[in-house]
Specification:
The complex is a heterotrimer of chains A (566), B (362) and C (291). By secondary structure, chain A is α/β, with parallel strands linked by helices. Chain A folds into 4 domains: 9-241, Rossmann fold, CATH 3.40.50; 245-300, no CATH class; 315-399 and 484-566, P-loop containing nucleotide triphosphate hydrolases (Rossmann fold, 3-Layer(aba) Sandwich); 414-482, no CATH class. In chain A, 32% of the residues lie in helices and 25% in strands. Classes of the chains: A alpha/beta (566), B mainly alpha (362), C mainly alpha (291).
Chain lengths: 566, 362, 291
């Protein structure tokens, strides 16, 4: 871990402000990166990290503030300028054209010419050479659509190096990688840094940073609140700076104290077992605090309503599971066996967490159980009824509900009002003689809005007008009616603010207590670990392991997620 | 409810007004290129349409057909389907109404004959709408191309049916006159409309608009239809059978357009004539767009385009009536351009009430 | 007999080839090409105008190409700059072209159905092999698809078109202007499709009202049939043309009424839609202009 010895400042941003309509993404943000550093920018979801880096890379012009790259004032420059000046950005969502080859993607916009025409063979040769010098393996003639996520990310990095990038910006690079792929990425970044580049990383995962970075900038609510040297700080201090209130961490690095569950989730730490700390915490905890307790994440709140939840009952593993899937095969867009003979069962009062890197068949599995995709083999049984051939409407009637991964396309009709969205799927129950009963719909909507604290609380507002968290609450309110039996929750808190995350998690726990069965699919391991009774891992269409929560942890699950474990 | 009123203005009124302004300017340019004075031409157009009873009657007559084709396209668009086939659906509907009229015994009472012919018209149009609906639902075939192709096919078929079989009166391209299913002219009750083609179908058109509005915005079917049009994936997740809605919407759209055929066949000439549709189906697209796919907007837009069309005849001495056709295309383009542009220009106003601190990442 | 049939096929295919080449280019860049009909018709009319006023079919050709490019630019501006719905814009432009050609037909030639006879290429109507191959547009039409295939697959512009039609964001982040590429593709497609109309008008030595008669839509069907690749779309054009040529020969024998003969290409297209579109995958960004 070499520090920035040269003293040259690669990036200096001061007082940057940027808004999008009424939303203020950056206010008084700053960043200083020395040449040859690996520098991390951290903060909660919505802190403004991505925006700041996009200003740096030329995607946005700042409303105010200065941006200097290698001493030159570049505020308001374009991506083309930035690329020409040696700034390369690797986005969180890859910017690769799937139908083109690796070589074509890398050279796009800077195609090597021979005379008047673009020379394809030359492009491939140049890419080969670059691959050799940087140690980033790639096959230039392969189609991008055939690459794995890790390989695709390498291509993204190669794209920047091909253009002579001396300053690399990576936005949430580890969000889609499994633990071993993350290690590989650090190796790559060190290689690139040693070759003379400066690297800026955006992330919200603290545990990964400590080994790789030299310095860290912390952002909160759109502003920079602290700049730290990695060697002189600790995850606890970083976490404190990120959330703005004192965060005590125990010996194993777990947060203890107010809102700790949410804090843990926000900063990417797994909430795990913690008996000693819990006892210690409980003894000296201030009256309005949340205590993380042992064995699983049970939350005791002392809030005005004085609701104290009893410890979650262990699921009743009888012979009559709520959901039983047997030998299910489902075809997916890339493979006829995206789900390859999966069997699982969920007991009443159980949350089964399904971990795994995205793209291993989780989406197809959930869609098959929800009825959005036909199974090619196997059965799905809910409370003894075989629903495998049921259309979606019938499954809904049978108590199978689904929080979809993408609320904007699957979950909501954004132009419909909150009320209209809340009755989607049961509109027949709200109609009489062919017409929708407005009074009944309104009453229902008002009731659900109150129960789920949806804001603004106007049932006639179009769903489009709400924040992501509140939009998700509409979906959750709709998919968790009192009488549901099985909930398929796919990425239920993706893109949702911290307050709503906590709320949704509470709802899931309450449903578990009420004896429902929940299949939780999430790319965030700490969410899985926070909520599940049992954890299963999906890899290449199969469930490769199922274990009780007590034995699960990031280290244990990682190898299973990448197929490394047998 | 001010949110929906602002939305209505933003999405409905403003773009339309902008578009009309553009059309006005374009019209001026065309008139000038023909060496005439725009003021004089527009004035002549107004006086030839709304300035006398005959003109008003003609405008009402033409608007009636446009209401049906406009509703047809609007219903399709609300379901997310672009129905370019209103022209052939209209023609098929008129043909079936005329053919049934021929089959009915000569002295049948209108109280039976007219409803039967109306139903026949809806069935004819509905069948033509069924084809692209099924092609979309079963094969994923884009209804735009399917309806365009079907236009050619159906119109060619009807031309053959009239000319090659014995249906037509010799030396003409129309069927014999049928009086039992004739819908009375307005002039029969309001003599001031003497000579104009306006007839009782006007009332049918108004009824159709009201029913369409109820269907779209109050009924459960309309709720599902609009959901499919706005966000088919979410509708599917909610258990709505999207392909079935597509088929039903296209059949409905076809039936409504087919019903429009009775304006000419039962109300005006009392026979079916090859080519009677005369572009009203395509104009229905403009009507639906300018009417912002809203039944009451369709009523207003139909009146507007009917005025243009009738006005074109009135000014023919000064400027070729083809200018009106050009204006129609310009209006459609202007509306298509205005809608997103107005939305973009108004985007400065805050949409979210959410606190800025809790910005959530997409 | 076979020779005559093949010759007929070629003559019928030329307009389709031009229009379909424009369609492939624009659609690969992400812009829907329902406007081919309008582009074609504008090319036919402008070519007639040019040939009439200057007495030379070559000037007519230039005018025709320019006309198509102008309407291509109109469609491009409406959909790219103003983000108008691409299908609506296409319908509007098609209507406008019909109206404008009729309006100026009256203005220039004082007729509502056709222009006077103008200088053209090749013989009119059913010409023999000699006249056919003397028509430079025939040769142009034969090579347009292979040339387009080369442009799309091997040139810088073609690579950028492919990127922009599949994932415009990727191009934007690399500093490639998505709008500029799309403008180029659509305007070129206008010019290409117009050549189809130019061929028609100059072959028949006159312009008749709505003379393209839906060929632009059949060309679009060929694009879809050919899965948005030039060579396959070209083959589709030949197939459609062959079927038409066969039916015309058969019609001469009085087997089918003329109306049914005219239906053939449209029915074929419907059949193609039913069987093929489900399998064919359009460019991912087709129809989106949020970019």
């Amino acid at each position: 871990m070499s520090g920035a010895a040269s003293g040259v400042i690669a990036v200096r941003m001061r007082g940057v402000a940027k808004h999008f309509g009424p939303v203020v993404a950056n206010r008084d943000a700053s960043l200083e990166v020395g040449a040859g550093e690996i520098h991390a920018v951290v903060g909660e979801n919505g802190a403004g990290k991505s925006t700041l880096l996009r200003v740096l890379s030329g995607m946005f012009a700042p409303d105010a503030g200065t941006v200097e790259v290698f001493g030159k004032d570049v505020a308001g420059w374009t991506t083309a300028d930035a690329i020409a000046a040696g700034v390369g950005m690797v986005h969180q969502h890859f910017m690769l054209v799937p139908t083109l080859t690796v070589a074509e993607n890398v050279v796009l916009g800077r195609e090597p010419m021979s005379g008047m025409t673009y020379d394809r063979a030359l492009a491939e040769r140049e890419l080969e050479a670059l691959s050799q010098t940087t140690g980033l393996a790639c096959v230039p003639s392969r189609l991008v659509s055939e690459l794995s996520v890790g390989e695709a990310q390498r291509v993204e990095i190669l794209k920047t190096l091909y253009r002579g990038a001396k300053l690399l910006i990576l936005d949430e690079p580890t969000a889609v990688l499994s633990p071993p792929e993350v290690d590989e990425l650090w190796r790559v970044l060190r290689t690139v840094r040693d070759a003379g580049a400066t690297i800026v990383l955006v992330t919200h995962k603290l545990d990964e940073l400590m080994e790789v970075t030299d310095r860290i900038t912390v952002m909160r609510h759109g502003a920079t609140v602290m700049e730290l040297r990695t060697s002189e700080t600790s995850p606890a201090a970083i976490a404190t700076a990120m959330v703005g209130r004192a965060v005590r961490l125990d010996a194993s690095g777990m947060p203890v104290g107010s809102g700790s569950a949410a804090v843990a989730e926000a900063i990417g730490l797994a909430v795990g077992e913690n008996d000693d700390a819990a006892a210690a915490g409980a003894a000296g905890a201030p009256p309005d605090s949340i205590i993380v307790s042992s064995a699983r994440d049970r939350i005791t709140r002392n809030i005005p309503a004085a609701i104290i939840s009893s410890p979650a009952p262990t699921p009743t593993y009888t012979d009559a599971p709520r959901l039983r899937v047997t030998a299910l095969t489902v075809a997916g867009p890339r493979s006829p066996r995206a789900v390859d003979g999966i069997s699982l069962s969920i007991a009443p009062g159980e949350i089964l967490g399904l971990a795994g890197v995205e793209g291993n068949g989780q989406t197809e599995l959930v869609e098959a159980i929800a009825g959005l995709r036909a199974a090619t083999g196997g059965t799905i049984v809910v409370d003894g009824t075989d629903v495998t051939r049921f259309p979606i409407g019938k499954r809904l009637a049978h108590g199978i509900t689904h929080i979809p991964e993408d609320r904007h396309t699957r979950g909501l009709v954004l132009d419909y009002s909150i009320a209209d969205n809340l009755i989607l799927g049961r509109q027949t129950q709200f109609s009489s003689s062919g017409a929708i009963n407005r009074a009944r719909t309104l009453a229902f909507a008002v009731d659900r809005i109150k129960a789920f604290d949806i804001r603004p609380a106007d049932p006639s507002l179009p769903a489009r007008a709400l924040s992501g968290g509140n939009q998700q609450k509409i979906v959750v309110a709709r998919e968790m009616p009192p009488d549901f039996r099985v909930l398929l929750a796919a990425q239920p808190t993706r893109g949702v603010d911290v307050g709503a995350i906590e709320f949704i998690h509470d709802q899931l726990r309450a449903a578990r207590r009420a004896g429902k069965a929940i299949l939780l699919v999430s790319a965030e391991l700490h969410e899985i670990l926070a909520l599940s009774d049992r954890v299963a891992v999906m890899y290449r269409g199969k469930i490769v392991t199922v274990m009780p929560r007590a034995t699960a942890s990031e280290d244990v699950l990682g190898p299973w997620m990448t197929g490394a474990a047998s | 409810m001010s949110a929906s009123i602002t939305a209505a203005i933003e999405d409905g009124v403003l773009p339309t007004l902008t578009a009309l302004l553009v059309a006005l300017v374009a019209g001026d340019l065309l008139i000038l290129s023909y060496g005439q004075s725009p003021g004089e031409v527009w004035r002549l157009m107004l006086s030839g349409t709304w300035g006398n009873a005959y003109g008003i009657g003609q405008v009402l007559y033409k608007a009636t057909t446009l209401v049906f084709t406009g509703l047809s396209v609007a219903i399709g668009l609300r379901a997310g389907l672009f129905n370019i086939g209103a022209e052939s659906q209209l023609a098929a509907g008129g043909f079936c109404a005329g053919a049934l009229g021929l089959l009915l015994p000569a002295g049948s009472t209108p109280w039976v004959a007219i409803p039967m012919c109306l139903v026949a018209a809806m069935i004819g149009g509905g069948l033509v709408g069924l084809v692209p609906g099924v092609l979309r639902a079963r094969f994923g075939a884009h209804e735009v191309i399917a309806t365009i192709m079907l236009n050619f096919i159906v119109l060619a078929f009807l031309n053959w049916a009239i000319s090659a079989t014995g249906l037509a009166v010799p030396e003409t391209l129309h069927t014999p006159v049928v009086t039992s299913s004739a819908i009375p002219r307005l002039s029969a009750y309001l003599p001031v409309f003497h000579g104009s083609a306006a007839n009782g179908t006007i009332l049918l058109a108004l009824l159709a608009a009201v029913v369409a509005a109820w269907m779209l915005f109050r009924s459960r079917f309309g709720y599902e239809l609009r959901a499919v049009g706005l966000q088919p994936l979410a509708a599917e997740s909610g258990g709505i059978r999207v392909p079935r809605i597509w088929v039903m919407s296209m059949v409905l759209a076809g039936a409504v357009a087919g019903l429009g055929g009775t304006n000419f066949v039962l109300g005006y000439k009392n026979y079916f004539e090859d080519g009677f549709s005369g572009g009203a189906g395509f104009l229905g697209i403009a009507v639906a767009l300018v009417g912002r796919n809203n039944p009451f907007g369709v009523l207003l837009a139909a009146l507007f385009f009917a005025t243009l069309s009738q006005g074109g005849l009135a000014i023919h001495a000064l400027v070729p009536k083809q200018m009106v056709e050009v204006l129609e295309g310009i209006v459609i383009l202007a509306v298509a351009v205005s809608v997103p542009e107005v939305r973009r220009l108004l985007r400065a106003r805050p949409v979210r009430a959410a606190a800025t601190a809790a910005v959530s990442k997409r | 007999m076979l020779g005559l049939l093949l010759l007929q096929t070629l003559r019928i295919a030329i307009p389709y080839l031009f229009a379909a080449s424009g369609g492939v280019l624009a659609e690969r860049a992400g812009i829907v090409s329902l406007t081919l009909e309008g582009f074609m018709l504008s090319g036919a009319f402008c070519a007639t105008l040019g040939s009439f006023y200057f007495g030379s079919p070559w000037i007519g050709l230039l005018f025709g190409v320019a006309g198509g490019a102008v309407f291509g630019a109109l469609h491009a501006v409406a959909t790219i700059r103003f983000k108008a719905d691409q299908i609506v814009s296409a319908v509007a432009i098609n209507l406008m072209v019909v109206g404008l050609t009729r309006f100026f037909l009256r203005l220039a030639f004082d007729s509502s159905s056709n222009s006077p006879r103008v200088a053209g290429f090749g013989g009119d109507g059913n010409a023999g092999a000699l006249a056919t191959f003397a028509n430079p547009l025939v040769w142009l039409g034969i090579v347009v698809m292979p040339v387009l295939a080369w442009v799309i697959g091997r040139t810088r512009f073609g690579l950028r078109v492919r990127a922009v039609g599949e994932k415009p964001e990727a191009a934007t982040t690399l500093g490639v202007s998505v709008s500029r590429i799309r403008y180029g593709a659509v305007i070129t497609s206008g010019a290409l499709a117009a050549l189809g109309g130019v061929y028609l008008a100059l072959d028949q030595h006159q312009f008749t009202d709505q003379m393209t008669a839906g060929r632009g839509f059949i060309a679009l069907a060929a694009v879809i049939f050919g899965r948005w690749t030039p060579v396959r779309a070209g083959i589709a054009c030949l197939l459609f043309a062959f079927a038409e040529a066969v039916q015309i020969q058969v019609q001469g024998a009085g087997v089918l009424p003329s109306q049914f003969v005219s239906m053939i290409p449209y029915v074929l297209t419907l059949v193609a839609l039913a069987g093929v579109v489900g399998r064919a995958v359009p460019p991912a960004a087709l129809g989106r202009t949020e970019g």
